[in-house]
Amino acid sequence: AYKRFSELLPKEERENACSARAPKSQILTLPELRANPFQHRICRVFSTSDSGDDSISFEDFLDMLSVFSDSATSDIKSHYAFRIFDFDDDGTLDRKDLEKLVNCLTGQDEESRLSNAEMEQLIQNILEESDIDKDGTINLSEFQHVVSRSPDFARYGGFQQ
């Protein structure tokens, strides 16, 4: 992990990789993230940068690798998946978050984009299935409840290395 992280740094910073931060542009070159539709959210969620540039420290990198590893529990994977899908970072998945989530999964171009009616129906179905307290949003425990009924989540939920 240290070797992989240091290779993401500019040559002059590789000596001090433990205290350096890899820029988001370099993190996005990792094969595991290159084709991931949530690559920007993943950087945002794992970055501890105060400057908002989504750069990643070695410690952040280790956290990210551990969540993506096969040995991470479903609870840990679902916690981070929830944070990644919570685009506005308000602690719930609301209609706007769900719309962004669907757009990330289906693509943004004209051919793959859902119509407004299809999007509304899909979001309604997701909320009916997941929103246990019927408040119009999905909280972490509701999300984890749904994920717990899907044994393939940890394996195929985009969270494997």
UniProtKB/TrEMBL annotation:
<dbReference type="Pfam" id="PF13499">
    <property type="entry name" value="EF-hand_7"/>
</dbReference>
<dbReference type="GO" id="GO:0000287">
    <property type="term" value="F:magnesium ion binding"/>
</dbReference>
<keyword id="KW-0106">Calcium</keyword>
<dbReference type="InterPro" id="IPR002048">
    <property type="entry name" value="EF_hand_dom"/>
</dbReference>
<dbReference type="InterPro" id="IPR018247">
    <property type="entry name" value="EF_Hand_1_Ca_BS"/>
</dbReference>
<dbReference type="InterPro" id="IPR011992">
    <property type="entry name" value="EF-hand-dom_pair"/>
</dbReference>
<keyword id="KW-0479">Metal-binding</keyword>
<dbReference type="InterPro" id="IPR051433">
    <property type="entry name" value="CIBP"/>
</dbReference>
<dbReference type="GO" id="GO:0005509">
    <property type="term" value="F:calcium ion binding"/>
</dbReference>
<feature type="domain" description="EF-hand">
    <location>
        <begin position="73"/>
        <end position="108"/>
    </location>
</feature>
<protein>
    <submittedName>
        <fullName>CIB1 protein</fullName>
    </submittedName>
</protein>
<feature type="domain" description="EF-hand">
    <location>
        <begin position="118"/>
        <end position="153"/>
    </location>
</feature>
<keyword id="KW-0677">Repeat</keyword>
<keyword id="KW-0460">Magnesium</keyword>
